[in-house]
């Protein structure tokens, strides 16, 4: 792409670093900004910078939160003995949208993926094992997407907590293999959460 302006080229290059944004889309977005009032771009830049600098992770569940304890963990009406293991905030949002779950979450921050160089040590697994070994958890619900990475991660965690007195379940799969949780419709996902099965059963199938 030949640019008549270095400033324009820099902006397009930065924008095209985002996932799913190619150079053409980046150019379209940048040109759109040029047509909008200048404050709009300033506000966008300020919001991004503030978010990046000030974002917090809940000290209990590792979900993204503005406070040290997220709204879910801070809510006394939720069952802290029930912990749903998910990959990231998108899964929390998807499950919350179903209004079928009143427990807590544990956000791993990813899935074990040797191909991408992500090992167990890169994820929030030790704090989960701690919670279980301290007897803080009665039921651990595995809700990672049923991809190979999701299954590997579930199994790794399951092995870590197997010896402790905790019920391990997994959400029933109305969701077909390879589907990401966030794309499942609310009714299907809600039903999967209600119809949990023992984790051991999922290993045999
Ligand atoms: Zn939390």
Automatic annotation (TrEMBL):
Keywords: DNA damage, DNA recombination, DNA repair, Metal-binding, Zinc, Zinc-finger
ZnF (C4-type) intervals: 58-73
Gene Ontology biological process: DNA recombination; DNA repair
Domain of life: Bacteria
Signal peptide feature range: none
Record-linked InterPro entries: DNA_Rcmb_RecR, Rcmb_RecR, Rcmb_RecR_Znf, TOPRIM_dom, TOPRIM_RecR
Domain Toprim intervals: 81-176
Record PANTHER family: RECOMBINATION PROTEIN RECR
Name used for this protein in its record: Recombination protein RecR
């Amino acid at each position: 792409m030949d640019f008549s302006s270095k400033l324009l080229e820099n902006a397009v290059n930065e924008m095209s670093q985002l996932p799913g944004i190619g150079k053409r889309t980046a150019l379209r977005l940048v040109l759109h900004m040029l047509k909008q009032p200048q404050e709009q771009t300033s506000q966008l830049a300020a919001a991004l910078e503030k978010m990046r600098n000030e974002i917090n992770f809940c000290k209990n569940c590792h979900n993204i939160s503005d406070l040290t304890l997220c709204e879910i963990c801070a809510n006394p009406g939720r069952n802290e003995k029930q912990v749903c293991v998910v990959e990231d905030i998108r899964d929390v949002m998807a499950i919350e949208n179903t209004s079928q779950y009143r427990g807590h979450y544990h956000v791993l921050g990813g899935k074990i993926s040797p191909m991408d160089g992500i090992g167990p040590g890169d994820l929030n697994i030790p704090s989960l094992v701690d919670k279980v070994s301290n007897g803080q958890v009665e039921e651990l619900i595995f809700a990672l997407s049923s991809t190979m990475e999701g299954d590997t991660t579930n199994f790794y965690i399951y092995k870590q907590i197997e010896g402790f007195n905790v019920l391990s379940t997994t959400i029933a799969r109305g969701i077909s293999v390879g589907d990401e949780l966030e794309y499942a419709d609310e009714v299907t996902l809600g039903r999967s959460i209600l119809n949990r099965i023992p984790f051991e059963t999922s290993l045999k199938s």
